[in-house]
């Protein structure tokens, strides 16, 4: 039995994200995520200008004159959401935790998918595969995706993106549009990302809190690595320390950007202090221009 407060929160996110999917992203989603396969439609008589290789020789032999096979673009897609639930995502100094924002992103993408009659599935991961929700259609299914994204309690603490991508390749037989939603505090995922992007359309949604980029002057502060449990004191009143922190953060993010570029993976840079719908819409419009 689901707690009433949990149901209220799911309902609130459902209303917000479904409206956003309808009013803001509907047109962009449909135009930039198109099926890449072709499926058989019908057989019709050959017309001047048709390709010879399209001729259906069996039907042609029976009918006594040329017929061709007509194919149409396969529109139905499978959308996969790879959601990072490692402990570093349970952090936030702005309007919400990174994990909460990630759940909302899952919701709006899931609603965008079902409104276009696409299937949507979910893989929750840490340093292990925590939960797999096979791709299906329908509003009830999306509500399950939202519930798992919001309230699933992981057992792992760290992050293994390569392992999650490897699992994706094992459980999907066809091409998917896959959103990897994570803060990407991990290493050694470049090769897995590159290989998977040849088969799937991989899009990285990186979630960042402003305190991960720059420290304010707050004096002596105790910090803890959420994934390792290691704690330490840092003197934020020191200008040199703040500069070093900012420099190291910039290097990490530049390295990550280089990995995405090398793997030809699109990246949506989501910040906890910036309305995510603006960032998503900007990405959708950019990608729409690129494929014209």
Q: What do these coordinates show?
A:
It is built from eight helices and ten strands. It has a six-stranded mixed sheet with strand order 5-4-3-6-7-10, with helices on both faces. With 292 residues, the chain is α/β, with parallel strands linked by helices. It has two domains: 4-33 and 76-214 and 249-291, von Willebrand factor, type A domain (Rossmann fold); 38-73, no CATH class.
Summarize the topology.
Layout: H1 4-32, E1 38-45, H2 57-63, E2 67-73, E3 78-84, H3 98-114, E4 119-125, E5 129-136, H4 139-151, H5 161-171, E6 177-182, H6 190-199, E7 201-208, E8 220-224, E9 231-235, H7 239-262, E10 266-271, H8 276-291
Parallel strand pairs: 3-4, 3-6, 6-7, 7-10
Antiparallel strand pairs: 1-2, 4-5, 8-9
Helix pairs in contact: 1-3, 1-4, 1-8, 3-4, 5-6
Keywords:
292 residues; alpha/beta; Rossmann fold; 2 domains; 8 helices
Give the H and E element order.
HEHEEHEEHHEHEEEHEH
* Beta-strand content estimate: 15-25%
Q: How many distinct domains?
A: 2
Task: Tell how many strands the DSSP assignment holds.
Answer: 10
The best one-word shape is elongated
In the CATH hierarchy, the third-tier topology of the largest domain is known as Rossmann fold
User: Class of the largest domain in CATH?
Assistant: Alpha Beta
Q: How many individual helices?
A: 8
Decide which structural class fits the backbone. alpha/beta
Q: Main beta sheet, described?
A: 6 strands, mixed
Looking at CATH, the homologous superfamily of the largest domain is von Willebrand factor, type A domain
- Which architecture of the largest domain per CATH? 3-Layer(aba) Sandwich
